[in-house]
Amino acid sequence: MSDALKIAELLAGPVTDLIKAIVDKDEEAAERVRQILPEQSESGKVAAKLRAKVQP
Amino acid sequence: VNRLWVLAALALALNTGCANGTRPEIRSAVLHTAYSLKLADKSCADTADALAKAGSGKAAIQLAESCDTAYTNGRAGLIAAEAAIDAKGDLDAGKVACAISKSVSGLKELVKAVSVYAEMPPQILDGIERGEWLLSLGGDCK
User: Fold this and answer.
1) Residue B63, CA atoms < 13 Å, CB-side half-sphere
2) Bigger pLDDT: A10 or B104?
């Protein structure tokens, strides 16, 4: 099983419950998307790290 | 016969509700799409790392950069969609659909890029489906 699949398996239950709790309360202006998705992506961090390695 | 008419009217009302999407349904779909984007981004970062360790540094950088761009675009659309959901007054599902279109494209680009190297978790595909359902709510995006 790939790492991504393992992460997905771990996330599946808690994420669904969390979303259900948020939706049930119909929270407004909570900026949940910003909490879920930080400005800096993981792939962006890796790209920066790899570019730094390549540059002399 | 009257009972049948009542049942038919009820079924029609329920069906219309599903087609338009209630605020909780739409919020749930936006949050699931956001989690899918997060998961796809993490999957991409891990894949790029693995590629670099295997000696394919150039391909790893290209992959990570394209995922980063897709993530940035997708995130912007989801933030706009959430703002449309939280706007005061009646929910404008069309506005949410317009905002989410960038996110669905970003998520699909990300999945396409990573799928060349790794298997994508089903949760990510579920997020795309939910995003596409939001798109189906329509709206004039001009």
Assistant:
1) 29
2) B104
